[in-house]
Specification:
With 464 residues, this protein is mostly helical. 64% of the residues lie in helices and 3% in strands.
Length: 464
C-alpha cells in the first residue's frame, strides 16, 4: 500500500472519503446515485407508482438505515424488484393484450400489503436479537427460498411478453443494450446496464415518433413528491376490507425471499469491504433498517426498499468504502424527487421499453433463484428436498396461470384470495419444518454471498 493510499484510510480501516476533498466526495456521491438510478426508477415504471415518491423514500430510507446501523454499513436502499409480482396481482398495469390500465385506485392497496410485509423484517430482527441468526434462519433455508424466487420470475414472464408485443423493435433494442453492457461493458457501463437499456430504447422510440411528450411540457419544474390518493393511508380510509386483507395475504410471503436478498447483499458488502457487518453492527440492525424503510416508503406510496448491489459494485470499483458517500447519494435522490418534470419524462416511457428491460429482469429473478440453490449446494438426492421444491413451483406457477389466478374463500362479507406465491411459500415453509432430514445451517462467522439480487447487476465484489 503506497503512502497516498495510507493517507486516505480512516481510523476504522476504511478508505476515508473526507480526505479526498469536498469536490471529489460530491462526485463520488453522484456516481452512487446514478448507479442505483436505473433500477430504482424501473420499479415505478413497471408498476405505475410515482417516480418522485420513489426517489424521495429511497433517499430517506437510506438515511434511516444508516442511523439504525450506527453509520457503519455503506449500503444504499433502492426499489426492490421482488415485490413486482405482488403489485401485478393486486394492481395490474396492463391487460392481456399489453394495453395500459389505470391502476391508480388499486396501487394504495398493494402498498398496504408491502408495508405489512415490512413487519416481517421487524419480527425477524427481534427474533435474531433474542435467539441468534442461525436459529431463526433454519426456517428459511435455500430449498424454500430458492424455488420461491424462481417462481416469482416465472409468474411475471407473461406481463413482460405482453409489454414487448406493443413494439418489438423498441423492446429488442432494450434487451440487446442490457445484455451487451452487462457482458462486455467496462467500469460504470457494466454497473448500470438497465439505465443504458432504458435510455437507448427510449431515444429510439422518440426518434421513431412513438413517444408523446405532452405531459412533460405540462409538468412543473418543482413540486411535492407525495400524493395522498396514492398512499396506503388512502386505501385504509377507502375501506375495502376484502382487498386490504387479500393484499396482505398475497404480498407478505414475498418478504421471505427479500429477507434472503437482504442477507445476500449485506454479505456481499461485507466481502467487498472486508468487515463482517452481519456480526457488527449485526444482522438484526441491518434488517431493522431495511424493514422500517420499506414500511415507511410503502405507507406513503413508494416501492419496498432493499440494499442495492449496484452500489456494492461501485464500492469495489472506487475502493472508497466510507458510508458518507452513500449518504450524499441519498441527499441527491431526495433533491431529484422534487421535480415533477423529471417524473413526467419517466412517465412517457414506451411500454415496450419497460417490457424489454423487464423480460431480462424477470428471467434474471428466476436465474438467481437457481443460483441461490446451486451456491448453497442443496442436495436434490434427498426426496424431501425434491418434494418441497416441486410443490412450491407447481403451486406458485399453476395457481397463478389458472383461470381464477388465485385461490380464495368467503367469510361473511369478507372475501380473501391467496396468490400462487403465497400458497407455495407457506407450503414450502411447513413442509421444511415437518419433514425429516434438514441439513442447512446458516453461518454468520464467515458470511457468504448466498442470497439473491433482483436486478441485472455487475457486482465486482470480492469473494471470500
Amino acid at each position: 500500500m503506497n503512502e497516498k493510499t495510507k493517507a486516505n484510510l480512516g481510523d476504522n480501516g476504511l478508505y476515508d472519503a473526507r480526505s479526498l476533498g469536498t469536490a471529489k466526495v460530491i462526485v463520488l456521491g453522484l456516481q452512487h446515485m446514478f448507479a442505483m438510478f436505473g433500477a430504482t426508477i424501473l420499479v415505478p415504471m413497471l408498476t405505475g407508482l410515482d417516480v418522485s415518491t420513489t426517489l424521495l423514500f429511497a433517499g430517506l430510507g437510506t438515511l434511516l438505515f444508516h442511523i439504525l446501523t450506527k453509520g457503519r454499513v455503506p449500503a444504499f436502499l433502492g426499489s426492490s424488484f421482488a415485490f413486482l409480482g405482488g403489485y401485478a396481482a393486486i394492481a395490474p398495469m396492463t391487460d392481456g393484450s399489453g394495453a395500459r390500465l389505470d391502476n391508480s385506485a388499486l396501487l394504495p392497496y398493494a402498498c398496504f400489503g408491502v408495508a405489512c410485509a415490512g413487519l416481517v423484517y421487524l419480527l425477524l430482527s427481534l427474533l435474531i436479537k433474542l435467539f441468534g441468526t442461525g436459529k431463526v434462519m433454519r426456517f428459511f433455508p435455500p430449498i424454500v427460498t430458492g424455488p420461491i424466487i424462481i417462481a416469482i420470475g416465472l409468474t411475471l414472464s407473461q406481463s413482460a411478453i405482453d409489454n414487448c408485443s406493443s413494439d418489438w423493435v423498441v423492446a429488442v433494442t432494450a434487451i440487446a443494450l442490457v445484455i451487451v453492457c452487462n457482458i462486455w461493458g467496462r467500469g460504470m457501463v457494466k454497473i448500470v446496464p438497465i439505465i443504458i437499456g432504458v435510455v437507448g430504447s427510449y431515444l429510439l422510440a422518440a426518434l421513431m415518433g412513438r413517444v408523446d411528450f405532452a405531459a412533460v411540457g405540462e409538468a412543473a419544474w418543482v413540486g411535492l413528491p407525495v400524493h395522498w390518493n396514492r398512499t396506503a393511508f388512502w386505501a385504509l380510509s377507502d375501506g375495502d376490507v376484502s382487498l386490504l386483507v387479500t393484499s396482505v395475504i398475497t404480498i407478505m410471503p414475498i418478504a421471505l425471499a427479500t429477507i434472503v436478498e437482504h442477507i445476500g447483499d449485506v454479505s456481499a458488502i461485507s466481502s467487498t469491504v472486508g468487515k463482517n457487518y452481519i456480526k457488527d453492527p449485526g444482522l438484526h440492525r441491518t434488517m431493522l433498517g431495511d424493514g422500517l424503510a420499506t414500511i415507511i416508503a410503502a405507507l406513503f406510496g413508494a416501492p419496498a426498499n432493499t440494499t442495492y448491489g449496484e452500489n456494492t459494485g461501485v464500492l469495489a470499483l472506487t475502493k472508497v468504502y466510507d458510508p458518507l458517500v452513500i449518504r450524499i447519494a441519498a441527499l441527491f435522490a431526495i433533491l431529484f424527487s422534487f421535480s415533477p418534470k423529471f417524473a413526467a419524462v419517466i412517465g412517457c416511457m414506451p411500454t415496450a421499453t419497460c417490457g424489454g428491460v423487464s423480460l431480462v429482469l424477470y428471467g434474471m429473478i428466476s436465474a438467481v433463484g437457481v443460483r441461490n440453490i446451486v451456491e448453497t449446494q442443496v442436495d436434490f438426492a434427498k426426496s424431501r428436498n425434491v418434494i418441497i421444491a416441486a410443490l412450491i413451483l407447481v403451486l406458485s406457477i399453476g395457481i397463478n396461470y389458472s383461470a381464477a389466478g388465485s385461490v380464495g374463500f368467503v367469510l361473511g362479507d369478507l372475501s380473501v384470495r391467496f396468490s400462487g406465491i403465497a400458497i407455495g411459500a407457506l407450503t414450502g415453509i411447513i413442509l421444511n419444518a415437518v419433514l425429516p432430514g434438514k441439513d442447512y445451517q446458516f453461518d454468520d462467522d464467515n458470511p457468504r454471498h448466498t442470497g439473491v439480487d433482483f436486478a441485472v447487476r455487475g457486482r465486482g465484489k470480492v469473494e471470500n
